[in-house]
Amino acid sequence: MKTFKDNEGRTWTVKVNISTVKRVKSLLGINIFDAIEKDLIARLVSDTILLVDVLYVICKPEAEQKNVSDEQFGEGLAGDVITAATTALLEELVDFFPEAKRQVLQKAVGKYRKVEGLAIEMAMKYLDSRETEKKIEAELRNISDSSGSLPESSESIPTP
């Protein structure tokens, strides 16, 4: 079992077992076994709303004990908590499967983490490039602004 703490300071236990798999399938129509053979991991990593829905259904018995609705559960998940919750869920999914499938899932999770890191690195390089800065400045010059004109380039902006 893995745990994470939400932004309200509540600790949640992510526990994947057959009962959990049945509950997720019944309430969300999502088959946890798709983590191995289909794109469930990619969907969870890229769709935060789906991730939170799955987490809530997994934590539903605990949420009911704490008298926390699905909306309140979602309100407690933002920022770095989403990363912690994602990690808890992925690690628990990996641990759920038998050894052979666990190895496949570990590799898939590792690949998604690597790709996510590369995507962040590429985005940072793009945003840091002079070319991007020029495109943004050109767009800003094209916008009709009620205050008049914008500076020609970032070089004309005084540095503090």
Q: Concise description?
A:
66% of the residues lie in helices and 5% in strands.
Strand content: 5-15%
Task: Please outline the major beta sheet.
Answer: 2 strands, antiparallel
Identify the quaternary structure here.
single chain
Number of distinct helices: 8
List keywords for this structure.
160 residues, mainly alpha, two-stranded antiparallel ribbon, 8 helices, 2 strands
Question: What does this protein look like?
Answer:
The protein is mostly helical and 160 residues long. The chain has one domain (2-144). It has helices at residues 18-28, 34-37, 40-46, 48-65, 70-75, 80-96, 99-128, 130-142; strands spanning 2-5, 11-14. Strands 1-2 form a two-stranded antiparallel ribbon. Helix 4 crosses helix 6 and helix 6 (80-96) packs antiparallel against helix 7 (99-128). The N and C termini lie far apart (51 Å). The model has no long low-confidence stretch (mean pLDDT 83).
